[in-house]
Specification:
- Helix content is about 65%, strand content about 0%.
- Helix 2 runs antiparallel to helix 3 and helix 3 packs antiparallel against helix 5.
- The longest helix is centred in the C-terminal third of the chain and has 27 residues.
- The termini are far apart.
Length: about 150
């Protein structure tokens, strides 16, 4: 056990600290340690948008509205501007609503298998994050193309 007062590492069955004499508190159970690690590591559900992703959602939606407005007013290529706005809109949906994206994927998978209890793995979670950044990049490139012609 580690002493709360001085930080000295005592044997696991000690009642008092060998270094400073302070009383040692009983150790935590493995369940308590596991819950504390989970809470501290912030392992959020893959189907729940983080605070950062919720902010990104509104940034992407705002970008979609701005792109649509810009392409309709200033663009020589309104089609590219509209595609840019749609891409930013899809990035916002992907960032802000991962549970909806998973539901679509689960429906697609269920057409080929009988599994109803599938859950997203880490690969899906990382791929999901990469997808909305790619959609964001595509929307910016399409906006530049639409405004430059």
């Amino acid at each position: 056990m580690i002493c709360d007062s001085c930080g000295f590492k005592n044997s696991s069955n000690a009642k008092k600290c060998i270094n400073c004499g302070a009383e040692l508190k009983a150790g935590m159970s493995s369940e308590e340690i596991s819950r504390m690690i989970d809470r501290l590591s912030d392992r959020s559900d893959a189907l729940t948008a983080s605070e950062f992703e919720r902010i990104l959602k509104w940034i992407f939606f705002s970008l979609a509205a701005a792109e649509l407005l810009l392409c309709l007013i200033f663009s020589g290529q309104p089609t590219a501007g509209i595609l840019a706005a749609l891409s930013a809109l899809m990035a916002g949906v992907s960032a802000g609503y991962p549970n909806m994206i998973w539901a679509v994927n689960k429906f697609r998978i269920s057409m080929y298998t009988d599994s109803d209890d599938i859950t997203p793995n880490d690969f899906w979670s990382y791929g999901h994050k990469v997808s909305y950044w790619i959609l964001f990049g595509v929307s910016v490139v399409l906006l530049i193309v639409s405004l430059s012609w």
